[in-house]
Specification:
The complex is a heterodimer of chains A (197) and B (428). With 197 residues, chain A is mostly helical. Chain A is built from ten helices and no strands. In chain B, α2 (42-54) runs parallel beside α9 (334-352), α2 packs across α10 and α6 (194-209) runs parallel beside α7 (227-238). The chains are: A mainly alpha (197), B alpha/beta (428).
């Protein structure tokens, strides 16, 4: 028992030295992530009406998103300016923090019949990557179910008209959806995601 | 080994102490640690909640005289008729759910030697760490004729609540063709873009209800926060710079410095006299009252603090956060107070657990709403360097001048999201 404690103390001491020397100027994950709460909600679950919930995002998706903001490749209002304030290491720490948080869904308004239609469209065009009705963050998919409606609208506008990049697979599906159902199809999808609790 | 500095050593020492709680009871601290927080505004309420979230073994008492807090941010939307006063009103039930002991009383003294906070109600609270978030108070009579009593007739509306209602009602009662005079404060003051957002919001109401009316901003400064974006917005919506402008701004170089007011005749005296139908005087400011009683202020009336912990440089174990603290280059804003409170909370929790102060990170984000479809923002990321808060190079800044109408409309919805999220982060 005593020996075990001794080893733990030694490990702690040397671990502390290493991290103290190398990470001296890097804040902890929670220190960094707490600065996001003013706009994205405590622990990353937003109360809306528009700022997205970032809790539960996959690490890689978070990192890629911040990088795209830093580079100005993703259209944004304020995030380009904020993302530029962080190092790669800090972004990675934040990504780790938010990936562990629970996406808390809050009530929002939606049109029930459009949501019903949207559910069908989701199955046909989106479910393959955005699994479980858009609830899953597996394979770095963005969580869509329960995301705030205006944010989904802005994102879809950016994808379809604002030059926001997307993966080839997504572009193919989105083009098909628009060809088959037009803007009404997109609106139905958004209502479906907004309807999920 | 040569790389190990004092903080690392403290971190190591802290690590050993923390471990002792698991394996060596004779080294543990025993009784729970007490934090007393003075002031239940944005800074104080955030600190209370985040200390409890980080370490629920710490006993946190928050002392605030009022049962409800009205946020200053978004109170300009109330003046513009775009928001109800109730929507900016918050109570303390959320903090109680986090296990914060909320006491409604007025703190009258803080004794750094006995480490006790005393109240008007005759109570005394012992602390291991005290966090003071007193907000601002006013330098009455710096503008001759404007004092606390006159403020009941000519509102400052720089602390939200009844003052906000008073100004709103006066604007509503004003005749079409009337003049609203806003007397802006000198630097430094709470919410640097606030007076100009206020002018925008009042202009929105007047444009839609009393379009012959005017707003004159009299300013003792040569320029102001987000000036280019505000004036561009005023050009878009309120005819700024035209002969028929609804808003007129007179800086110090154009004779805008007001030295005296006549509260009976509603006249502001600058280089020339300005007769108002509704007057709003935002007086020069200093730290909240208790900061003076507790000897936490410098000769300019603000509180110097250690930027890593927000501990007062004047008294040990007393921390000052929010508008009252000197955290420049961070502005005196709600988001800054929220961010400072979290850094302070983490430092206090670390200290009470025998650890060194953590490496801080801070953010400010601030929106100004010009019309219900047009807003702009300023943001900045800060870090600590050589014991000082500094702006992270390349980060932050303003909404671009050439932002599209659609993007500025998005900023309105993000401004409202900001409001919903920060108020829940503070009081929820």
């Amino acid at each position: 028992m005593i020996k075990k404690h001794f080893i733990r103390i030694v490990l702690l001491l040397f671990g502390g030295m290493l991290s103290g020397a190398i990470l001296a100027a890097t804040p902890s994950a929670s220190m960094l992530a707490n600065t996001c709460a003013g706009c994205h909600g405590t622990n990353g679950s937003s109360s809306g009406p528009a700022s997205p919930t970032i809790a539960g995002m996959s690490k890689d998706n978070f990192i890629e998103t911040m990088k795209a903001y830093q580079g100005g490749e993703r259209p944004s209002t304020i995030m380009t300016r904020i993302a530029k304030g962080y190092t790669d290491k800090e972004i990675k720490l934040m990504a780790g923090f938010f990936s562990k948080q629970k996406f808390i869904r809050k009530k929002q308004k939606y049109n029930a019949s459009r949501a019903k239609f949207g559910k069908k469209l989701h199955k046909k065009y989106c479910e393959k990557c955005h699994e479980k009705g858009g609830r899953s963050a597996d394979d770095d998919a963005g969580i869509l179910a329960g995301q705030w409606k205006p944010y989904l609208q802005y994102s879809m506008l950016d994808f379809t008209k604002g030059g926001r990049e997307m993966e080839k697979k997504m572009k193919k599906k989105l083009d098909a959806l628009q060809k088959d159902h037009g803007d009404k199809g997109i609106d139905a999808l958004i209502n479906y995601y907004a309807s999920q609790k | 080994m040569s790389n190990i500095n004092r903080r690392d050593f403290l971190n190591l020492a802290g690590g050993v102490t923390a471990l002792s709680a698991l394996g060596f009871p004779m080294l543990s601290f025993g009784a729970s640690k007490r934090v007393v927080i003075v002031g239940g505004g944005i800074g104080g309420a955030t600190a209370a909640k985040y200390i409890r979230m980080a370490d629920s073994s710490i006993d946190v008492t928050l002392i605030e005289v009022n049962k409800y807090y009205h946020t200053c941010f978004m109170s300009n939307e109330v003046l513009g008729g775009n928001r109800s006063l109730d929507s900016i009103k918050f109570g303390y039930s959320g903090l109680k759910k986090h296990g914060v002991n909320v006491v409604h009383d007025l703190v009258t003294g803080i004794n750094p030697d006995t480490k006790k906070v005393s109240t008007r109600g005759g109570k005394s609270f012992s602390y291991d760490a005290c966090i003071v978030s007193p907000g601002i108070s006013f330098n009455w009579n710096t503008i001759e004729g404007y004092d606390a009593k006159v403020a009941n007739k000519i509102p400052h509306a720089w602390k939200a609540g009844s003052q906000t209602s008073l100004l709103r009602n006066q604007i509503k009662a004003m005749k079409n063709g009337g003049t609203v005079v806003i007397v802006a404060p000198p630097n430094p003051f709470r919410c640097p873009p606030g007076p100009y957002e206020r002018a925008s919001q009042i202009a929105w109401y007047l444009k839609n209800n009393k379009p012959k009316s005017k707003i004159i901003i009299l300013d003792p400064k040569p320029k102001f926060s987000k000036m280019g974006l505000f004036t561009a917005g005023w050009q878009r919506h309120y005819g700024y710079d035209s002969t028929n402008s609804m808003i007129e701004w007179l800086g110090v170089d154009s004779g805008g410095k007001v030295t005296r007011i006549d509260s009976k005749k509603l006249i502001a005296y600058a280089d020339v006299d300005f007769k108002a139908d509704v007057m709003n005087v935002i007086p020069p400011q200093k730290a909240g009252k208790i900061a003076f009683a507790a000897d936490l202020v410098n000769d300019k009336g603000w509180c110097p603090v250690n930027h890593q912990t927000f501990e007062s440089t004047r008294h040990k174990d007393i921390h000052v956060i929010g508008d009252a603290s000197i955290a420049s280059p961070m502005p005196k804003s709600g988001y800054a107070a929220n961010s400072e409170a979290k850094v302070c909370a983490a430092a206090v929790v670390a200290k009470l657990n025998g650890k060194g102060a953590p490496v801080p990170s801070y953010v400010n984000t601030c929106y100004s709403i010009i019309t219900p479809k047009d807003a702009m923002s300023v943001a900045m990321v800060y870090r600590l360097e050589d014991s000082k808060i500094i702006k992270v190079k390349g980060s932050g800044g303003l909404t671009p001048k050439d932002a599209s109408d659609a993007m500025r409309q998005r900023e309105v919805s993000y401004a409202h999201s900001w409001f919903n999220n920060i108020t829940r982060d503070v009081f929820g």
